[in-house]
Structure formats: structure tokens, C-alpha cells
Amino acid sequence: MNYRSAALFALAISLTMHVLISIVSFYGREAVVVAKAKIPEFDAVRLLTSMATTFVFTFLLYILNFALLKSGKPKLPKLLLIVGCTLLATYALSWAFTFVHILLFDFGAHPERAFRGGLVRDFFTATIVVFSSQIVYANVRRNLIALENEALKAENEKTRYEALRQQVNPHFLFNSLNTLNAIIKTDPGKAQQYVQELSYIFRYTLQNKDVITLDEELKFTGTYGSLMQIRYGSSLQIDMDVRPEYRSYHIIPLSLQTLVENAIKHNIISRQQPLAVRIFTEDVRPAITVSNPVQRRKTPEEGEGVGLANLAERYRLKWKQDITICCTDNTFSVTIPLKKI
Predict the structure, then answer these.
(1) In angstroms, rounded to a whole number, what is the distance separating the alpha carbons of residues 56 and 94?
(2) Do residues 215 and 247 touch, judged by C-beta distance below 8 A?
(3) Angle at Cα 136 formed by Cα 131 and Cα 140, nearest 5°?
(4) How far is C-alpha 171 from the chain's CA centre?
(5) Domain ranges of the chain
(6) CATH number for the domain whose boundaries are 187-337
(7) Do residues 275 and 268 lie in contact, with contact meaning Cβ atoms separated by under 8 Å?
(8) Which of 322, 338, 315 is nearest to 249 (CA)?
(9) What digits encode the pLDDT tens for the residues 286-310?
(10) What does each C-alpha distance from 11 to 5, 14, 56 come to in angstroms?
(11) How does pLDDT run across 244-254, given as a tens digit for each residue?
(12) What region does 320 belong to: left with phi over 0, alpha with psi -120 to 50, or beta?
């Protein structure tokens, strides 16, 4: 609803109207355009002048309607105000352009022909302007409301995503400290090495990135796996089989680490029952899978219960995609989509 749209609407109405008038004039038929008067023979100059004045007339009416529609709420109903102002403007403009036509053309004893079709046609044009302006305004308002709703939805999802992302770090810290506590009791030397490795881990978790490359996440997960092997020794194995072309794809930080942690937390790990976690990609689609055998603990390690549900929700909010969870009697696996950015 601006000058450009007003000009386009006015041009369309002016052209349509004068094409019809030209057809009628060309065939010499009578039409109710000038009250009970036969249209004069085709005159290109007069027709072009009429088109120009009709365009300006319609353009000004659109500008008036757009301005009133965008203004604040008046005391009177807005539609009544618009109709009243449009009628007054139509009457005043019609007489103004009549005067212009009288100055340009000699109508002799018939000055009423200078009305460019008379007040009837001008009021008909004004009616079209009022109704089309209402339709345009309603459509613009509907689009603005839709955009505002989308913006609010996006902002809400961003806020939820950030809340979930911030939830990961305390969760990771809680489980890491539990692990450190267990190592201190059994092997203080390993505990010292664990603290050194843990400092790198926390530098990684504190980075303020929404997404990272799969290569970065694999390196971090490998470091995390080394920490866990300090605790579990050869009873825990983490195997990676990732196609080189997928390493440049992107993933949400801590995705693979969360799944490895989830496997360690819920499964028995001992010399009698070692746990082998596989991280691999396939040719079918850009995705990475973390898989482990099911060796359920009677009582899982303590934690905040954040991991898998948090990861699934972050992918839904960030990329509108779901992770795939597959659980059988023998195997538990989670497949995460990879994104090419």
C-alpha cells in the first residue's frame, strides 16, 4: 500500500476503461458514459488526455484511501470516514478535471462533455477504488499478521533451543564429576590424567557455536572416549568408521558425545561384558549412526536425564528434522542427520 501500488492500480483501471471507450467509439455506438450523449468521433489526443486525467484522478483516490486505512482509529467508523472522504474528493476532482478539459478543448454549447464521462463514471470509479483498497488492506494485514506470527514462532524456537543448549553443559559437568569421583576412589593417578583431559573437554563445551563440522565433533568424541577408557580400560571400545566426504558436513555440538555417554550410562561395562560402541556412516544418506549392544544395567548411573530427549528436541528446533532411534533386544542405535552448509 504505497505510491507504486496506487500507480499500478490506477493505470490498470484507466487502461481498461479507455480500451472499452475506444472500442465503443470506433464502432460508433452509443454508451452511457456521457449522460445521454453520443461519444464523439475517435480523437487520439482527446483520448490520451482523458486517460491521463483518469489515471491521475484514480491515483489520487487510491493515495487518499491508503492514507486513511493506515491512519489511527478515528472516532467515526473507519469505513464510513473513508467513503465520505472519497465522495467529497471524487466530486472536487471531477470538477477540477472538467475545468482542465474545458481549457484544452472547445466543447461549444456542450461543456458537459468535458466531464470525462460525467460524475456517474467518476463515482463508479471511486466505488472500485474503495472496494479494491479494502481488499488490498485486508490482504496486507493478513500477511503482516502471518509474518509477525512466524517471527514470534522463530524467536520462541530460538529461545527454547538456547535453553536446551545451555542445559547440556551442567548435565555434562554433573556426569563428568561423578566419573572423576569414582576414579579418585580407585586410582588417584588416573584421576590426575582425567582432570587434564577434562580441561580440554570443557573448553570445547563452552564454545558458543550452534553447529560444527562432523570432523570437529569426531575429534571431541574421541577425546571424551579416551577419558572414559581411563575409567573402564579395555572394557570400553569406541570404533569410528566415517566416510571422508561426510567430515565436512555439519552437526549440532555434543551430539555424538551425548550418544556415547548414553550408551555408557545405561549398559554394563566389565571385563566379562565389554561394551563396543560403533560410530559409522553409510552410503544411503548423509547421516551418522551411533550403535551399541544392549547390556542393560539393573540401575543406570545417576544423572539428570537430559541426554537423548534434549538431543532430539534440539534437532527438531534447529533443522526441523528428527533423529532416528532403533531399539531391538540386542542392539540400540541412534541415527543423526548431517547438514551440508
Answers:
(1) 11
(2) yes
(3) 150
(4) 31
(5) 3-149, 187-337
(6) 3.30.565.10
(7) yes
(8) 338
(9) 999 999 999 988 776 555 456 788 8
(10) 10, 5, 9
(11) 999 999 998 88
(12) left
